[in-house]
Design a protein that fits this description.
Elements: E1 2-6, E2 9-12, H1 19-22, H2 27-32, E3 38-40, E4 43-45, E5 53-55, E6 58-60, H3 90-116, H4 118-121, H5 126-159, H6 162-165, E7 175-177, H7 184-208
Antiparallel strand pairs: 1-2, 3-6, 4-5, 4-7
Helix pairs in contact: 3-5, 5-7
Keywords: Glycoprotein, Membrane, Transmembrane, Transmembrane helix
Protein name: Synaptophysin-like 2a
Membrane topology: Multi-pass membrane protein
Length: 231
């Protein structure tokens, strides 16, 4: 389906049905499941009379955990001194989101190019070659940032584990672990990260076929090469 709107622009929805155009739309799912995350961990102090005092330290993206101090409510209703979650895991989280955002912007630009300027894209070999190099670079970046964020997420889980928090000096011997933080979104973000790495690496093959480096192994025979003329 092709609709010519003005000089240089010709709307062609064909690439949306091909891997070249559809593979990259998964980029948004990776950083969307990480950025904006907000969660809390839970533990309590068991007090006489069955009235427990609950404490719910909060944390979220970009996972600078000491940025959110909390106080433990004691059985006499008083509060302890400020206590901090330990660990700064912002570098891996922000790197992951940064790759996702720039990948999404590049996807948007190339989809516009594929759908509206396919004739310009294929007019010279420069466009496909640049696209191939950038796509390969993003595949590598997805591998690096997903691995780094996977390790960072493991550390976040350890630092916010209620079983670890109740071992701190202000809580030891008086606290009881509660519910573990819900991190389904963050687990999904790591999966999407590695999925994007696979998809972008696979996309290199489809772009490679658009470059002059890809030669047809069975070129059509010509009269000069001894091919028989068609009747």
């Amino acid at each position: 389906m092709s609709v010519k709107l003005k000089a240089g622009f010709s709307l062609d929805l064909g690439p949306l049905k091909e891997p070249l155009g559809v593979i990259r739309v998964f980029t948004i799912f990776a950083f969307a499941t990480t950025g904006g995350y907000y969660g809390s961990t839970h533990f309590k102090i068991k007090c006489p009379g069955g009235v427990d005092q609950h404490t719910d330290p909060v944390f979220g993206y970009p996972f600078r955990l000491p940025a959110n101090p909390y106080q433990i409510t004691l059985c006499n209703k008083s509060r302890s001194n400020e206590t901090f979650l330990q660990g700064d895991f912002s570098s891996s989280a922000e790197f992951f989101v940064c790759v996702g955002v720039f990948g999404f912007l590049y996807c948007t630009a190339t989809l516009i190019l594929y759908l509206g300027y396919q004739n310009v894209y294929r007019q010279t070999s420069r466009g496909p070659i640049i696209d191939l190099v950038v796509t390969a670079a993003f595949a590598f970046l997805w591998l690096v940032c997903s691995s780094a964020w996977g390790k960072g997420l493991t550390d976040v889980k350890w630092a916010t584990n209620p079983d670890q928090l109740i071992l701190t000096p202000s809580c030891k011997d008086i606290c009881e672990a509660g519910e573990f933080p819900s991190m389904g979104r963050l687990n999904a973000s790591v999966i999407f990260g590695f999925l994007n790495m696979i998809l972008w690496a696979s996309n290199c093959w489809f772009i490679y076929k658009e470059t002059p480096f890809h030669k047809d192994p069975n070129p059509p025979a010509t009269m000069e090469e001894g091919g028989a003329p068609e009747p």
